[in-house]
Write a structure and sequence with these properties.
Layout lengths: L15 E4 L2 E4 L16 H16 L5 H20 L4 H9 L3 H9 L5 H11 L2 H15 L1
Antiparallel strand pairs: 1-2
Helix pairs in contact: 1-2, 2-6, 4-5
Length: 141
Amino acid sequence: MAGGAHSRLPALVPVRKRVGKSDVYVVGDAAAQVKVSTVGGIVTGFRGALGVAHAILQNGKSNELTSLRRELGTHWLIRKTLHHFQQKDYSQLVDLLNDATRESLGEINRDESTRLLWNVIRRQPRLVLLGLRGLLMDKKA
């Protein structure tokens, strides 16, 4: 998708909308709270529901919704990075996974992608170059 959906963060779907005299809240798939890297949405949907509950109780403010949006942004970045990868890129990625990096992958689940990404980068900095190459390939497409 040249310059299309993969070139920028997806638009945020508001979790609250005024309909007549009532507020309507959406979570999960309806609020686009789905990890684009794994297409998983159960955990993010529950986090979205918790965030909406906090927003209702705290006058529209929710640290959980902010955290969830950041997490989903990380998944979007990972997906965007891998979008143009070819077999040789995946092979290089696997070759770069040293013991410490593999340990991070085994310790941290995919619902904590931001924490996982930082741990993997800290343990294998050369992965940053591979990731940047993936991001730059998107600009060429």
